[in-house]
Structure formats: structure tokens, C-alpha cells
Specification:
- InterPro entries: Utp6 (IPR013949), UTP6_N (IPR055347).
- One of its GO terms (molecular function) is snoRNA binding.
- Keywords: Nucleus, Repeat, rRNA processing.
- With 739 residues, the protein is mainly alpha-helical.
- Among the domains are: 1-120, no CATH class; 139-336, no CATH class; 533-668, no CATH class; 683-739.
- Helix content is 66%, strand content 0%.
- The chain contains 34 helices and no strands.
- It has helices at residues 2-9, 12-20, 26-43, 51-72, 87-102, 107-119, 123-136, 141-152, 164-177, 193-219, 247-252, 263-277, 280-284, 287-299, 304-314, 322-336, 344-352, 354-357, 372-376, 390-408, 420-450, 454-470, 475-487, 492-506, 513-529, 534-547, 552-564, 570-584, 612-627, 632-642, 648-655, 666-677, 684-696, 700-738.
- Helix 9 (164-177) packs antiparallel against helix 10 and helix 25 (513-529) packs antiparallel against helix 26 (534-547).
Length: 739
């Protein structure tokens, strides 16, 4: 309590000043004191204090300062500053400092502290806050990136910035702390901690070159000039033109890095300094940026992911260096990913399609009406968006096809030769060749889908037809060929012949099960789109479900076909469902461990997780409820008697069916409950639900009998502990019924 009193006494001079200035009345000041007393008490609770207590206190002080400024602006001022003009912001700063000292692990408090520092006219406060945040959370990437942006660019108010050397060292040290923390979702295009820092470092170096270029343009200095402007010193920028008379003061505000200087960092810094000393032309041509790019590629062992990361950074780069840096990346890609590399197909695609995405940077036209803030929030370019059109698009597509054909036509037939080593090498080359053919055909199809130019579409279709005829057969290419025939309105006879050949070649082993499913689904959907007679389609469904009895998608299509068939009567549909459900309950209808369907069901939202043994009974119950409600219970009772291994979730769903409301007899529900409690997966809640329903229906004696059976079954299965848990759950249900 004494600590709280001392804290409140420190506010007395500030409050007297506010009262003398007539900013707040005496009653308002009393209310301020009471509010602050409550907040100070919450902070003095010891272990009971939470980070939210500090945030609530800070929010109150922030609103109080906003009110003080609004009132002070309406009061005639003498022009001299007094204590109350800066005491509340200083108090907020102190609260943030205490908060992060007490809860250093809270990122929320650190974020709030940094946000407050950025609102104050104190670059030193921002630098110290960011340095403290980094020291406490060295693996939290946003703090490193934020600190680098502060050192390099500053903020919109003009504070900070101009310290490229400091930003560079921050990025180098961040990569040291984040080493090995690469993106876990690379294939989804999600950057990890390390990738974010590499992006920031390249941005810093490019921004430095562009600032230098602008200053040299203002000074009338261009390439070939004799002025020796570039200098490298211990701290500050790599150019003396970027420093002013207050350089020493700026360096005092620089963010101090945690830890010691690493030898690798020192070597890299020497290389960067050497590049800076190599002359102004090399600097303007992006020598330092190229060095950073080379180190990024080295860090990722020249993987395809690294090259894709660089392309995503450089393609939307707002700098005249864009094309030259991209050319440097492609040169490295060609040198480090030769045709013998497993990554060569991906490298070939990047090289062949580069002209679709790589265009020179066009700076926006300067307009007096467009503010700097508007330019800063402009949407960045999408690196995956095709940037050429018209004749340039046609030329780019043509050159991409030429590059692909040049490689694919050069592929020789791989003879396996003698020896296991040569045989494995031949298999690897064949797999690579297959991947390139599939990649080329998929790209041609994608471009054909996107283009609206008839001439370009004809060119793409011709290349696709040639590629499909020359490529080695595969399930992927067969599906693509079928889509191509459907898109080009080929004769139905050709389409049917291809679909038949496709299922014959790839509709069974050794084709992977997921691809078999795709092949059969494509053939069945093609038959439906061509309006073949039901008598011709029904055998195809039977053949498909025999080949893949565990495919939910195939059974779903088969059920929809059977229900909609003109030759099917309600009795025939019910008979089909009963036989199909029994078929799906056999052991061979269980999917293999490596089977992962690529389809989603349109009938049931839960169907992607449901195997056929779950899907078919649910569809059957829904069909009965909508088409034959009179025979609903009778048909389901017959199903229960002939299908002894129905799932517990399906049986439970029959107690509360979704869809149209149906009359449900007590005898039917009792039969369902008996089937549920007899299920091997049933737990004590099934017994409780059964007994509770009997008691609510007035059949207390039968309910007591069910309770007795439940205790015996649970004791035998789980011992006395299971019985006690059952009794507790039953008592809770009884209390609910009494209420």
C-alpha cells in the first residue's frame, strides 16, 4: 500500500499544473487519482498481476492524454511548456518499460511498447526499445525486420532511417540467430523466419542503391564520372553522400545488437565493403545486391526453393536493377542445376517461362496530386501474374515452347544397360523425362485455359496435341488428354475410345490407388456428359467399384446414378442400397494406408472423412426419408438385421436424423438403442442415453433393467472406475430431469 501511495504522490506536481491551467477541474482530478489508485493497486498484487493490467492502465493514460491535448488546444497558452505537457507520455513510457521488465516473455507487451515508442519524437527511444525486444526474443523475426526497416527507412514522420550499414548488420545477425528456421510450408508459398529476413536484406540493399542513384542524379553525377564518392567506414552508410554533419548523433541512436560478432558475419561484411570500394558503377549496377543473392543461394544449397524465393522477391522489385538481378539468378540456376540434377525439370520450367513474368521496371509518373503516403500503400505486383500481353505474350509463349521442345526432343531412349547402377540411373532419367513431359503439357493446358486469343489458343492446342502424342504414357497425361479432347469438342467416339483405353491402362495396379480413382471418375463423368444409355453406364460403375471398393467418390457417384436412373424403381434402389452396404462392410473395402483421395463429396459435408461403409448407410437413410417415409423404419430394421457391422456414428445418427421429420416408434428406437449399446465402441454415455429415454417415456422398470445391465457391462470392460463414472453421469442426467 505504501508503494501505491508513493506512486500517487509523484503525480501531485503534474495534477497541480493541470488544475492551475484549468485543463481539468478539481472533481475530474479527484476521479483521475481514484482511477490511478485502482490501476496501481492492480499492479501491486504481486503474482496476481497480469499483462492485461498494464495494457488497461496504458490505455487509460493514452485516452487521458488525448483529452488533455484537446482541452489544452482550446485554452490560451503563454507559449512556454510546463510539466503537464509531457508528463503523461513519460508516464506511459515508464509503464511500458515496467511491463516488459515484469513480463519479458509477453510479445503482446513488447508490441505495445514498440508501437508507443514509434509515436514519440525520440529515435533513441525507438532504437532502445527494438534492441531490448530483439535481445529478449532473438528468434522472433518481425522484430528483426522492424528494426532493419527503422534503420534503413525510418518512419513516415521522417524519424530514423539513413543507416544502411546498421540495417545490413541487423539482417546478418538475424540470419545467424534464425539459422535453420526455414519455412515449414514452402510448397504453399509461406515464408519462414529465415526467408523473411532474406527478403528484408535484399530490400535494404536495393533501397540503398536507389537512394544513391537519386542523389547522384540530383548532383549531376553519372556513370563514368571522376568523382570518388564511395567510402566505407566503420559505421554508417557505405556512401559519404548519405551522411551529414549529425552522423555521430545518428550512430548513437543505432540499435545495439545482442551477442558477439560472428566470423562468418565479419567475412561477409568484408566482401560487401570490397564491393562498395569497387567503384560507383559497380555499386549502381547492384554488386552488393548480387553478393547477397549469392549468399542466399549458398545458404539454401542452390535449391529450387531458393530460386523460386528469389524470383518472388525480384520480379515485383521497384528498381531499374530488376532485369539485371533476374539475369544473374538465371545464370546461377543454369550453372548449379545441370540436366543431371533431380531438380532440372523445375529449373527448366523457370527458365522457359521467364519471359512471361520478367519485365523492366517502369517508375510511376510523378503527380503533385499523389501524396507520398498514397505511393507507399500502393499494391505490390504479383510475381505469379503474367505481365506481358499482345505480341509480347505470343512471342514469350513461343520461346517457352521452343525451349521445352529443344530439351524434350533431345531426350534419347534410355536403355537400362547392364548392372544395377546403370539400371537405377536409367530409371531416374526416365522419371525425370516423364516429369518434364507432364510439366510441359500441364503448362500448355493452363495457358490454353487462361488465353482469350484464338490464334494463341490454336497454337497452344497444337503444341499440346503434339506433346501428348510424343510423351510416354501416364495416368496424368491420359487425364489431361481426355480434358483436351472434351475442350476441343472432339468426336464422341474418340473420347469414348480414349476413356476406355485410359481405364484399361491405368485403372488397376500398379497405378497408385489415388490415380486409379481419378481415372475411373473421369471415365464415369465423361460417360454422363455424353448422355450414354443407362444400360451402358451401369456396368462401368460396377467395374469401377470392384476395382476400388474403398473409394468414397466412386460409391457416391454410383448411388447418385442409381437414384436418378429412369429404369430404377424405389424397390430396386432399396435393394441396390442393401447389397451395396453389405459389400462396403467387407474387409477389402477398407482403404489402404497410403490411399488419399483427391475428391470431395457433394452430398455430405462429412463425406471426405467417411469411407463407403459410412457414406452408403447415410445416403440410404436420407433416400428412405425423402422418397419412402412409410417404409423408413421397416427398411432400416431389415438393414440392421442383415448388416451386423454398421458404425456407431451411423447408428447414433438414426436417433436424431437430419432432414424431414419422421414419426419414430418406441419399438424402433429401442431396437436402435439395443444395437448401439451392443456395439464394441459404445461407452457409458450410450447406456445413459438409453436409460434416460426409457425413463422419460414412462418405462421406469425397463430403465432400471438397462441400468443394471450397464453396470455389469461396464464393470466387466473397465472395472469399478468405469462404473463410478457411469453413476456420476447418470446422477447428473437425473438432476436435469428433476429440474
Amino acid at each position: 500500500m505504501e508503494k501505491v501511495q508513493l506512486a500517487l504522490e509523484r503525480f501531485l506536481p503534474e495534477l497541480r499544473d493541470l488544475e492551475q491551467k484549468k485543463v481539468f477541474t478539481r472533481d475530474e482530478i479527484s476521479d483521475i487519482v481514484n482511477k490511478r489508485r485502482g490501476f496501481e493497486l492492480s499492479l501491486a498484487q504481486g503474482r496476481g498481476t497480469k499483462p492485461s493490467d498494464y495494457l488497461r492502465y496504458v490505455e487509460y493514460e493514452r485516452k487521458l492524454e488525448k483529452l488533455r491535448r484537446a482541452r489544452a488546444s482550446r485554452i490560451a497558452s503563454t507559449g512556454t511548456k510546463s510539466l503537464s505537457d509531457h508528463s503523461i507520455p513519460a508516464h506511459i513510457t515508464q509503464l511500458h518499460r515496467l511491463a516488459v521488465r515484469r513480463f519479458p516473455e509477453s510479445l503482446l507487451l513488447w508490441d505495445a511498447s514498440i508501437a508507443h515508442a514509434l509515436t514519440q519524437a525520440s529515435p533513441l527511444l525507438v532504437s532502445r526499445t527494438l534492441a531490448a525486444a530483439i535481445a529478449m526474443h532473438p528468434t522472433h523475426t518481425p522484430y528483426w525486420v522492424m528494426a532493419s526497416q527503422w534503420e534503413s527507412d525510418g518512419d513516415r514522420k521522417g524519424m530514423g532511417g539513413g543507416n544502411t550499414e546498421g540495417a545490413r548488420r541487423l539482417c546478418m545477425r538475424a540470419l545467424r540467430f534464425l539459422k535453420g528456421r526455414k519455412g515449414a510450408k514452402r510448397e504453399e508459398g509461406v515464408d519462414g523466419p529465415e526467408e523473411l529476413v532474406w527478403r528484408e536484406w535484399i530490400r535494404v540493399e536495393v533501397a540503398f542503391v536507389e537512394r544513391l542513384r537519386e542523389r547522384w542524379q540530383v548532383l549531376g553525377i553519372g556513370k563514368g564520372a571522376t568523382e570518388d564518392i564511395v567510402r566505407v567506414k566503420g559505421k554508417g552508410d557505405a556512401a559519404a553522400a548519405e551522411q551529414d554533419d549529425g552522423a555521430a548523433d545518428e550512430q548513437a541512436d543505432e540499435i545495439e545488437l545482442p551477442g558477439e560478432v560472428d566470423e562468418e558475419d565479419a567475412e561477409l561484411k568484408k566482401e560487401i565493403d570490397a564491393k562498395a570500394l569497387s567503384g560507383q558503377e559497380a555499386l549502381l549496377d547492384g554488386a552488393i545486391v548480387r553478393l547477397v543473392i549469392d549468399n542466399l543461394l549458398k545458404s539454401y544449397s542452390h535449391s529450387i526453393f531458393a530460386y523460386k524465393l528469389l524470383l518472388s522477391i525480384l520480379r515485383p522489385l521497384p528498381s531499374p536493377l530488376r532485369l539485371s538481378l533476374l539475369s544473374h539468378v538465371y545464370t546461377s540456376l543454369s550453372a548449379h542445376v545441370p540436366p543431371s540434377s533431380p531438380s532440372y525439370p523445375a529449373a527448366l520450367h523457370l527458365l522457359a517461362t521467364r519471359r512471361l513474368y520478367d519485365v523492366a521496371y517502369s517508375p510511376p509518373k510523378k503527380s503533385k496530386k499523389r501524396s507520398a503516403d498514397d505511393a507507399e500503400v500502393a499494391e505490390p505486383e504479383d510475381p505469379a501474374y503474367i505481365k506481358v500481353s499482345g505480341e509480347k505474350l505470343v512471342d514469350a509463349v513461343g520461346k517457352a515452347c521452343d525451349e521445352y521442345w529443344g530439351v524434350l526432343k533431345g531426350l534419347k531412349g534410355k536403355s537400362k544397360g547392364k548392372g544395377k547402377g546403370k539400371e537405377r540411373e536409367g530409371d531416374s532419367d526416365a522419371a525425370k523425362a516423364q516429369q518434364m513431359w507432364e510439366q510441359f503439357c500441364a503448362w500448355l493446358e493452363e495457358m490454353a485455359d487462361e488465353t482469350e486469343d484464338e490464334g494463341l489458343l490454336a497454337f497452344l492446342s497444337a503444341n499440346l496435341a503434339s506433346a501428348l502424342s510424343a510423351a510416354p504414357p501416364s495416368a496424368f497425361l491420359a487425364l489431361l488428354h481426355l480434358r483436351h479432347l472434351l475442350r476441343s469438342s472432339a468426336p464422341p467416339a474418340d473420347i469414348l475410345a480414349l476413356s476406355k483405353k485410359m481405364t484399361k491402362s491405368f485403372g488397376s495396379s500398379p497405378t497408385p490407388a489415388a490415380q486409379q480413382e481419378q481415372v475411373w471418375v473421369a471415365r464415369l463423368e465423361t460417360a454422363g456428359s455424353l448422355s450414354l444409355p443407362d444400360a451402358d453406364v451401369a456396368p462401368l460403375f460396377a467395374q469401377a467399384t470392384r476395382a476400388l471398393p474403398y473409394s468414397t467418390k466412386l460409391w457416391d457417384l454410383y448411388a447418385a446414378f442409381t437414384e436418378s436412373s429412369q429404369a430404377s424403381t424405389p424397390g430396386a434402389v432399396e435393394a441396390w442400397y442393401e447389397s451395396s452396404i453389405r459389400r462396403s462392410l467387407l474387409t477389402d473395402a477398407l482403404p489402404p494406408a497410403d490411399f488419399a483421395s483427391t475428391f470431395r463429396s457433394n452430398t455430405d459435408a462429412a463425406a471426405p472423412e467417411n469411407p463407403p461403409r459410412e457414406l452408403l448407410p447415410r445416403r440410404y437413410a436420407h433416400y428412405l426419408a425423402t422418397t419412402s417415409p412409410a417404409s423408413y423404419e421397416r427398411s432400416l430394421v431389415a438393414l440392421l438385421s442383415t448388416a451386423p457391422t454398421l458404425s456407431l456414428s451411423f447408428l447414433s445418427s438414426l436417433l436424431s436424423p437430419s432432414g424431414p421429420s419422421l414419426p419414430s416408434s418406441q419399438a424402433f428406437r429401442t431396437a436402435l438403442h439395443e444395437r448401439i449399446v451392443a456395439h464394441p465402441d459404445a461407452d457409458d454415455s450410450a447406456w445413459v442415453a438409453y436409460a434416460a429415454e426409457l425413463v422419460r417415456a414412462g418405462q421406469v422398470a425397463r430403465g432400471q433393467e438397462v441400468l443394471r445391465r450397464a453396470r455389469g457391462a461396464l464393470r466387466q470392460r473397465g472395472g469399478e472406475g468405469a462404473v463410478r463414472a457411469f453413476e456420476a453421469e447418470w446422477e447428473e442426467v437425473c438432476r436435469g430431469m428433476e429440474a
